[in-house]
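A note from the maintainers: we've had questions about how concatenated examples are separated. There is no special marker in the raw files; a new sequence line simply starts the next protein. For clarity in this README we add a label.
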Amino acid sequence: MRTRKLATLLTGAALAATTTLVAGAAPASATGPCGSSYTRVGVYAVKRGDGTRTGTLEVYYSSTTRKNCALTYGYGAYANTPSWKSVVISRGDGTGSDPDSGRYTYHAGPVYVSAPGQCIDVEATVPDWVTLKLNNVHCN
């Protein structure tokens, strides 16, 4: 009898834990850093000339808004600590530029550009002397 009570108790505890985990999980439609309709379309490492990674550039696109979005995160010594972070997004022809830069703990951005039928240019800097530039990418 004691074994049956223990089994019932353990089953109940497992069910409660499972219910708690599911209830605490983020919904599938969770809003990302650019908004709920944005999907990540690119992730790029920002690296020094010697290959040491200092940051990450993320690019998103929304077919609903028809806009691209970008953010720059720190990596390694520059992650989750105040350091220079910068991101710029524009149309491939150089117009519509949206920059954001400063001494941020987590990320620069989000920044947005509407470029239907065009490519975009994006630029990320982490820290202030390490820059990644991508021209004419993510053409819509």
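[label: protein 2]
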Amino acid sequence: MLPLPPDVPVLEVFYSPSCAPCRLELPVVAQIAAGQEARVRIVILDQPARARNELRTVSPALEAAAVDPADGTSPREVLRAAGEDRSILPYARSLTPDGAVCAKWSGGLTMARAQGMLDACRRLLTSPRRSRP
């Protein structure tokens, strides 16, 4: 697979193995990770060994896209810092390569929803306002 260009948006998915709806959306996330239109980052909220095993089972690309939780930071704190004030899973957001949040979504992630979130970043990245100093 060719490396992704540096200006592609990021789909950031927050994951816990104890969240059944989170597991159900993994095939969608794997499909996006296999493409060339976005980067995927999976933030593991808890049970990192179990989470990595589940991600690997769906796709090695998902395990490679995973980042472990910050030491001592609770899943609730991680979610709140990411903009999910209710601390409810599933949760995902799209980001520009420099970390600006384009869109957020709580609930099951479908391909159409993920593409809409990534399109929000593409619009932001091509906005004339963004390119002004």
